[in-house]
Amino acid sequence: MEHITVIGAGTMGNGIAHVFAQNGYHVNLVDVSSEALERGIETISNNLSRMISKKVITEKEKASTLKVINTTTSMKEGVAKADLVIEAATENTSLKHTIFKELDSLCPKKTILATNTSSISITQIAAATKRPDKVIGMHFMNPVPIMMLIEIINGYNTSKETTDKIMALSKKINKIPTEVNDYPGFVANRILMPMINEAIETLFQGVAGVKEIDTVMKLGMAHPMGPLQLADFIGLDVCLAILEVMYQGFKNPKYAPCPLLVNMVAAGKNGVKSSEGFYDYSASRKAEKVASQFRS
Questions:
Q1: Could you say which of 14, 151, 170, 270 is catalytic?
Q2: Which domain holds residue 241?
């Protein structure tokens, strides 16, 4: 594999493009918005500059990484030579079905189609194509350039050849691939999201405040980041979407999103990306803010 196409220039998409380009692959970064593409490249450039300041890479390596990334708003142009396409669009089932149906019609027959979904069924996504044996999940962790894990998810019809190729490729970009099967939330979010949801429920019931809950988990359980701060970092809207997928998939009340989370997302308090979630990330104030006003 030489030519990698990434669909979506947001946080995960630009991170995936960064990692492949830094490892010498030709990358096409595709997004419907030219502004999003510009922001994506700016993010990659800034992250590379931070790596230079830490003496991880050189200026020459930064230049060579950026040189192999091409941006385009044309899906047809972006996938024309792709050996692998990785979709990193919004966590929305119907959107992913639409994207994969289009990819199937535009990509060469050899192309493997991967999705960075963190919860949606690979088997359902593959059903939108005529190549279900070549559809697989590649769930990268955020921030992609730093986190080592890739959760490799086999759909019902994913071939062993496809899995073997993606496992080998993941190692070539210096990641640690771990193979799992296709159930709601897979492994990472099946375990992580109920913990985050329970932390939100603990806040909702008034057991403790934001800082106190996160402190208990950081100091008591040796977590590098408290669950509420982590939820802000992931995006509360993303957490809600994943929990809803799991609740629908398992029909189990333990996956039902906490009302506080539902209300915060409805109010546009999505965490870091909206400058406010369980903590305040605005330029004027860095202090924490408990989301008690959103209790229902």
A1: 151
A2: 189-289
